[in-house]
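Query protein
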Amino acid sequence: MSPNITSHTRYNYPNQYDVIVIGAGHAGCEAALASARMGCKTLIATLNLDSIGQMSCNPAIGGLAKSHIVREIDALGGEMAKNIDKTAIQYRMLNTKRGPAVWSLRAQADRKAYQQSMKFVLETSENLDMIQAEIIDFVVAKGENAPYKIIGVQTRTGLVIQSKCVVVTTGTFMNGLIHIGPTQLAGGRIAEPASIGLSDALRRLGLGLGRLKTGTPPRINGQGIEYDKVTEQPPDEHKEFFSYSTEDVNQPQVPCYVTYTNKNTHKIIHDNLNRAPLYTGQIKSVGPRYCPSIEVKIVKFADKDRHQIFIEPEGLHTTEMYLNGLATSLPQDVQIAMLRTIPGLAKAHIVKFGYAIEYDFVFPTQLYPYLEAKQIENLFLAGQINGTTGYEEAAGQGIMAGINAVLKIRREAPFILDRAQAYIGVLIDDLVTKGTEEPYRMFTSLAEYRLLLRQDNADMRLASFGHKFGLISDRQMRLLEEKKQQIESLIMLLQTTRHQEKTCAELLKRPEIRLSHLPEALFADYGPDVLRAVEMQVKYEGYIQRDVLRARKLKKLENKSIPTTFDYNQVYGLKREAAEKLKNIKPVSLGQASRISGISPCDISLILAHLERK
């Protein structure tokens, strides 16, 4: 059924907006803040204003590859890094025994404090209004370069709100269905209603939707933990922060704990697989491969005698603990029984049971790399609606969608980060070029230019863009320029100062030598962020230069743009199968076209020749 092309004059909201953001999770918050800070009158609409910035699953930010995205959001002028620094109760740097390209910062958050802090930021932002409402439909008109264009939204109560652009960031709420054993509940999160109607509205506009699944573990009262039977995991002694603007944190730092499942745990789960929604056929959609439920773990990894469980505090003012690694949708009695077998948790009381949730998502190949829908002008999508999993992946898309919505209104060129510029670029390119059939999670292995995309240099890579869009202040840019000058100065000093008959730079390239092994007088006047950047640039100079050369080759292809109206049927020699794939994806550059599955170098050469003739 086609959408009604109408102005929807009934129950018109008195305010008109430049940008409306639907959903106030991690993607929605970043999209709304970016739009408002760029000067556009913005409205964020959500089912529950008290759930803004909610950490639906684990109370933590960062981790493997995800910390890179958080730093990139900060460098672009986003809020996630600042907010976790204000509310973190444990910092840990992961992967330090491996190379610096894969070092990853992770911070445990005070869940309530994180949510309340983010809500306050939105409430006090200029150009930003908030409304508690369920959006169920779009107001559309005939498009100029697409079948439709968005001109507003409609709430369940009949209120019509006009806008120039809409960003949809609904997370797991579209037709969300919760599973706890055989019990099924409609909801976007436990005890929160699902969004009903928006999926059908998107289908009427011509978008294809699928179903995905994710899950969460039980929460327990920490007073029941036998701490002598678990292993303490203390915070790092020397804290490193997410935001480049954070100088210190005020809240106390607390430990997490580690325990393991065992053969008794696995037997209970095995004996009840006939009651597990994942194995009875009750859950029909695909879950995250790299964050499976405990029942999937013991089936797929039957050779393992145990699986690690992280016991993580939910905050400073609650005894509630999150059992990271024990995600499940098993019946409640089974959840209680398996907990009784785990060391340290035998006496613990479950305060919230684990559950799985199925939800609608939009196949992301229907989007341009700037996250606008190809079929609908002025409609942008970000977050789990595009098939991703994780707060960080959602927030990274959110800030990009917010920026591009504003650029669309200004009739300026869209903002696209390529794979050599940012993990956010890798994430979005993978989604819109290759698509996904399971919840997409970022890993360092997905980035071809890992040494260029380190978490320590995100500011030097991206802050100029944030400054251009008005999201990074002049003062921040001055400080960054000073940092760059200090890095160059120290590198030059290392290259010209000799120690043990070699220059300090030559010594630093040895695997066993660290900057701290060199004479302290060389670097006593420099801050830790400068020292870290210098050590990595000098030690891995050859590898970095190799990636720089490869990235330049990529840039040549990325700079060869393809018009959205390009007719692939006119390319002489191009196979019909290749033409169909290219017409479906509508790549914006030769670089994106080259990454489409089934497109050969010969196909790219034919397209390039046709473009040059034109």
